[in-house]
Protein backbone atom coordinates (compact mmCIF):
# COMPACT_ATOMS: atom_id res chain seq x y z
CA UNK A 1 0.00 0.00 0.00
CA UNK A 2 2.81 2.42 0.81
CA UNK A 3 4.40 1.88 -2.59
CA UNK A 4 1.13 2.72 -4.33
CA UNK A 5 0.81 5.93 -2.34
CA UNK A 6 4.29 7.04 -3.42
CA UNK A 7 3.63 6.36 -7.07
CA UNK A 8 0.80 8.89 -7.15
CA UNK A 9 0.50 12.50 -6.13
CA UNK A 10 2.62 15.59 -6.15
CA UNK A 11 6.20 15.83 -4.98
CA UNK A 12 4.92 17.77 -1.98
CA UNK A 13 2.54 14.97 -1.01
CA UNK A 14 5.32 12.41 -1.41
CA UNK A 15 7.67 14.33 0.87
CA UNK A 16 4.89 14.88 3.40
CA UNK A 17 4.27 11.15 3.47
CA UNK A 18 7.95 10.37 3.90
CA UNK A 19 8.35 12.85 6.74
CA UNK A 20 5.23 11.47 8.46
CA UNK A 21 6.70 7.96 8.19
CA UNK A 22 10.01 9.24 9.54
CA UNK A 23 8.19 10.76 12.51
CA UNK A 24 6.41 7.47 13.18
CA UNK A 25 9.65 5.48 12.88
CA UNK A 26 11.56 7.84 15.14
CA UNK A 27 8.72 8.18 17.65
CA UNK A 28 8.72 11.95 17.15
CA UNK A 29 5.76 14.31 16.82
CA UNK A 30 6.69 17.55 15.10
CA UNK A 31 4.47 20.59 15.10
CA UNK A 32 2.69 21.30 11.82
CA UNK A 33 4.96 24.30 11.27
CA UNK A 34 8.17 22.37 11.85
CA UNK A 35 6.98 19.43 9.79
CA UNK A 36 6.11 21.74 6.88
CA UNK A 37 9.49 23.46 7.16
CA UNK A 38 11.24 20.09 7.00
CA UNK A 39 9.23 19.02 3.94
CA UNK A 40 10.12 22.20 2.05
CA UNK A 41 13.74 21.98 3.18
CA UNK A 42 14.02 18.47 1.78
CA UNK A 43 12.41 19.54 -1.48
CA UNK A 44 14.72 22.54 -1.79
CA UNK A 45 17.96 20.74 -1.01
CA UNK A 46 17.24 17.52 -2.87
CA UNK A 47 19.79 18.40 -5.51
CA UNK A 48 22.29 20.35 -3.38
CA UNK A 49 25.45 18.73 -4.66
CA UNK A 50 27.57 21.36 -2.92
CA UNK A 51 26.30 20.34 0.52
CA UNK A 52 29.25 18.02 1.14
CA UNK A 53 31.84 20.62 0.12
CA UNK A 54 30.81 23.34 2.53
CA UNK A 55 32.74 24.43 5.62
CA UNK A 56 29.73 25.23 7.80
CA UNK A 57 31.71 26.58 10.72
CA UNK A 58 33.23 29.20 8.41
CA UNK A 59 29.81 30.02 6.94
CA UNK A 60 28.43 30.35 10.47
CA UNK A 61 31.23 32.75 11.47
CA UNK A 62 30.73 34.74 8.27
CA UNK A 63 26.99 35.01 8.95
CA UNK A 64 27.69 36.34 12.45
CA UNK A 65 29.47 39.30 10.86
CA UNK A 66 26.27 40.32 9.03
CA UNK A 67 23.41 42.33 10.50
CA UNK A 68 19.63 42.17 10.38
CA UNK A 69 17.74 40.01 7.97
CA UNK A 70 20.86 39.14 5.94
CA UNK A 71 22.36 37.67 9.11
CA UNK A 72 19.16 35.74 9.82
CA UNK A 73 19.02 34.38 6.27
CA UNK A 74 22.63 33.21 6.27
CA UNK A 75 22.26 31.63 9.72
CA UNK A 76 19.11 29.85 8.56
CA UNK A 77 21.05 28.41 5.62
CA UNK A 78 23.78 27.17 7.96
CA UNK A 79 21.14 25.65 10.25
CA UNK A 80 19.45 23.95 7.30
CA UNK A 81 22.66 22.45 5.98
CA UNK A 82 23.76 21.33 9.43
CA UNK A 83 20.41 19.65 9.97
CA UNK A 84 20.63 17.79 6.65
CA UNK A 85 24.18 16.59 7.26
CA UNK A 86 23.46 15.46 10.83
CA UNK A 87 20.28 13.64 9.83
CA UNK A 88 20.83 12.37 6.31
CA UNK A 89 24.61 12.27 5.88
CA UNK A 90 26.25 11.33 9.20
CA UNK A 91 28.98 9.54 7.25
CA UNK A 92 30.11 12.91 5.96
CA UNK A 93 30.60 14.09 9.55
CA UNK A 94 32.57 10.95 10.35
CA UNK A 95 34.79 11.42 7.31
CA UNK A 96 35.50 14.94 8.51
CA UNK A 97 36.30 13.52 11.96
CA UNK A 98 33.83 15.74 13.77
CA UNK A 99 30.79 13.55 14.39
CA UNK A 100 27.08 14.17 14.15
CA UNK A 101 26.94 16.18 17.40
CA UNK A 102 29.14 18.86 15.85
CA UNK A 103 26.53 19.51 13.16
CA UNK A 104 23.66 19.28 15.62
CA UNK A 105 25.23 21.97 17.78
CA UNK A 106 26.03 24.26 14.84
CA UNK A 107 22.42 23.85 13.69
CA UNK A 108 21.05 24.77 17.12
CA UNK A 109 23.30 27.82 17.37
CA UNK A 110 22.57 28.94 13.80
CA UNK A 111 18.78 28.72 14.17
CA UNK A 112 18.98 30.41 17.57
CA UNK A 113 21.00 33.25 16.04
CA UNK A 114 18.53 33.49 13.16
CA UNK A 115 15.70 33.84 15.70
CA UNK A 116 17.53 36.79 17.27
CA UNK A 117 18.11 38.54 13.93
CA UNK A 118 15.02 37.70 11.91
CA UNK A 119 11.94 39.76 11.28
CA UNK A 120 9.51 39.59 14.16
CA UNK A 121 7.16 37.31 12.21
CA UNK A 122 9.92 34.73 11.57
CA UNK A 123 11.38 34.63 15.08
CA UNK A 124 9.03 31.97 16.49
CA UNK A 125 9.81 29.57 13.63
CA UNK A 126 13.57 29.87 14.07
CA UNK A 127 13.29 29.56 17.84
CA UNK A 128 11.23 26.39 17.37
CA UNK A 129 13.76 25.00 14.91
CA UNK A 130 16.61 25.71 17.36
CA UNK A 131 14.73 23.85 20.07
CA UNK A 132 13.86 20.86 17.86
CA UNK A 133 17.08 20.18 15.94
CA UNK A 134 17.60 16.86 17.74
CA UNK A 135 14.10 15.49 17.03
CA UNK A 136 14.41 16.70 13.43
CA UNK A 137 17.71 14.82 13.11
CA UNK A 138 16.03 11.67 14.44
CA UNK A 139 13.27 12.01 11.82
CA UNK A 140 15.82 12.47 9.05
CA UNK A 141 17.87 9.52 10.31
CA UNK A 142 14.74 7.37 10.19
CA UNK A 143 14.18 8.48 6.57
CA UNK A 144 17.78 7.62 5.71
CA UNK A 145 17.40 4.11 7.11
CA UNK A 146 14.29 3.64 5.03
What's the layout of helices and strands?
Layout: H1 2-7, H2 11-26, H3 32-44, H4 56-64, H5 68-88, H6 90-95, H7 100-117, H8 123-131, H9 133-145
Provide a brief overview of the structure.
The chain contains nine helices and no strands. It is mostly helical and 146 residues long. Helix 5 runs antiparallel to helix 7.
Any descriptors?
single chain, 146 residues, mainly alpha, 9 helices, 0% strand, disordered N terminus
Description of the molecule:
The protein starts with a helix and ends with a helix. The relative contact order is 0.17. The model is unreliable at 1-8 (pLDDT under 50). It has 146 residues and is an all-alpha fold. It has helices at residues 2-7, 11-26, 32-44, 56-64, 68-88, 90-95, 100-117, 123-131, 133-145.
The global form is globular
Mean pLDDT figure: 85
Extract low-pLDDT stretches.
1-8
* Count of strand segments: 0
Tell me about the biggest sheet? none
Amino acid sequence: MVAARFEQGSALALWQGLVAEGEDSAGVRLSETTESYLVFLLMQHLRDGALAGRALALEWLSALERVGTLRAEQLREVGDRSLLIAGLYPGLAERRRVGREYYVRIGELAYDGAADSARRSERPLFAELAATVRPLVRVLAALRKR
